[in-house]
Every structure is written in structure tokens, then in C-alpha cells.
Amino acid sequence: MNLQVVIGCHSFSHNPHRIFENLAGVPLLEYSIRHAQNLHPASIGVLIDSKMDSLQKGFIQKFSNSKIPVIFKKNNEVFSWLTSGHGADDLLFVDVGMPLIQSSTLKALQRWHHQEANEGTFLIPQWPHENQFEKSIVAQGNLSKTLDLWDAEGMVNAEHAWGSACFFKKKGLKTILTKKNSNHFSFQMLLKKSRTLELKLGTLTFKEVSEALHVSNGENWSDAHRFLTRQRIKALQQQGVVFWNANTVEIDPEIKIGVQSVIEGGVTLKGKTVIGERCHIGAGSMLVNARLGNNVVVQSSCVVNSMIGNACDVGPYAHVRGESYLYPKVHVGTHAELKHAIVQTGSKIGHFSYVGDAQLGKAVNVGAGCVFANYDGRQKHQTKVGDHVFLGSNSTLVAPLWIGKSALIAAGAVVTKDVLPNNRVAGVPARPMKLNG
Question: How far is CA 5 from the centre of its chain?
Fold first, then answer.
């Protein structure tokens, strides 16, 4: 049987940009697409209205190379698109607001739909008694009787009935769909319209209560976010990662953490961050697209788009950003900031320092409050510092600049010219120091 999947966005017509917003690090729409892809359909269609038209362009590119084509269609194109051939025997409708529906649940719905030879089969919560959800997917009986129960409890028009999933044979769908009602194509429309037709319809209940959560309001969005985050943390805990206060950690789906690493409370891990083994990430730290080696300590600091080598320690309250690269055993002190900096093994960046657009050799000492003045008001310039250089506290290096191996810059000096290896400079502007005797 060929399958065509339709992802409906009607429940977000009042707030269309939300379908492209990140839920626990993944765009809401992507959850539905990923679950649908696991059913190997012939195509996946996303129904949008005119308000969503300008928002879809960047998203289309993400799935442009997908083996299963993802097609965006406007509501006024639905009738001709769904009732045409497309080589599909069945249609699966999924509401975009149900990100917790699992692929296994959709596959079970598909099996039940075929087993019972239904014209249409709806996946629904077991209303009105929420605490009586089935623990396994079972037939819920006749759709008409179920909707009569919903009517009695005022549930048919409730928010909870907005979205879910349903399978339809193409023949049954053509019976329901008209040019007029296709402009409001949604789970709820299919549910109501099906009641008036003499079609063989069936129902199935959700496997888990969490799958029935619709994220059209802020409270449910938060609940879904926390549920997805907990799932990721639980998987990492099973792999040997320690979380001190898991309920306060934010973690995106592509995060990788090595065994015996410790994540304290209030930590945010975003993008494609990779943390090595036996690392310790202190409370309140934020890592975005960061790569950390083994035995790294980050104390209440921020690392963005940068790489930290083995046995480095950063912070507290430091900021490493702009594709900086720290070789092993580098120390970055409190309130220090590095931007587009390469720092080689054994170097130390003192507290309250700024190292921007710089290359530092091995065993360099950057004193407290040292500033690499990399911007002249028009463009950024580079500073290169050789091995074993000593930069005194509160010194300022005005780029472009080169500091030779084993040079010494006195505290408070303002360096505007290159310094030769083994030379010592001091003053404002810095000049070679005169040694007594």
C-alpha cells in the first residue's frame, strides 16, 4: 500500500510562526516530519495558510535533499492535491501540534486501519476520563459511539479534540472532501464530517497519555519541552553521565557527553555541543556548539562555537567565543573573555582579561586585566604572541602586533610596536627597559 502523509497546521492559524519555532531545540514541524518519514510514505505534504507562506522558505531547504519529498501546500490547493492520483492508496493526517506522538503509535494505527478494513481510523484520547488511558494500543470501538460520549461531556469542540492523527482510504477521503471544506482541512473537520457519512470508521487510543498533549497553548508547550528534555537526560544518565539537578538542565537533541562527566544544575547545552569524558560543567554554564576534550572544567561560564582541549579549566564567569581554540592545559580566569583566539598548551589567561583576534604560543602568561586592543574603529587586527611570553597586569596590546618568544611586557604598558624575542618593554607607549648595571 502506498501512503501519502499530510501534516495539518490549522490549529496554529492564529499563531502561524510557532510551527517553525524550536521546541526543546527542534522546530515543532520537524517532529511531525521525522515521525512521518519513519513510515516511508511516497510524499509528505505540509498544509499552510497565507500567513505561513513567508516563514517556510528556510525550512524547505533543510529537507531539500530528503529521499521523501516534503511539499508545502496552501489551503486553497488542498482539494485538487489530495483528490488527485499521486499513486497513494492511503492518506495519514497528522496535526503539527502533537510532537509527542511516536512513530510506533502511527504504525500501530496503520496496522489497525488495514486489519479492520476501515474507510477511516482515528487516533484519539480516551475522553472524558483522562486517568483511564489504556497502557497499550487497543481498539476503542465505534467512532459514532465515542463522539456521542464526547458530546455528552462537551468535548467535540474542546481544544483537546483539535489534533491527533487519522488514516483514510483515498476513496473514503474523496467522499468527505469538497472544495469548500478543504480550505479548513483539519483533524476536527474530518472528525465532524465523518459522523454524517455512512463509512466504516474506527478508533484507536493513544499508547501513553503524554502522546495526546497538544502544544497550541503556552502551558502545554512548556510541558512538552520538559518531557522531551527529560527523555534526553535519562538516556545520557543510562550512558554514565551524572546530572546533579536534572530538572534545571536544558539540553538540545544533538548533544553528546562522555562517561563520568558531571553536569551541575542550571546548565544549558545547545546546538551540536560535544563534551568529553570526566568533564565537570558548573552551575549556570552555557555551551553552544562547543567541543570539549576530556577532563575539562567549565565553572559557571559560557563557551560558544569554540574548542577546549584536554584538562583545560575555564572560569568562573568567563566567556570563550568566536571560534576560539584552546590547546590542552590552558587556564582561563574569572571574567576573562576570548574571541577568535588560539591559545597553545600551558598558557594562562588571567582574570578580567580580553584576548581578541590573537594567537598565543606555549606557556604564555596573560596577567590580570590585560587587553588585546584588536579594533581600530574600522577593522579588526591580529596579535601574535610567541612561546613563554609574560604579559603584565593591565597591559594593553594595540594590534596589529607581534611579540617575540620569551619577551616581557611590564604591568600597565601600552604596546604599539612589535617586540623582539627576549626583549623587555615598559611604559606608555612601551619602550625597551634599561637594566641596572
Answer: 24
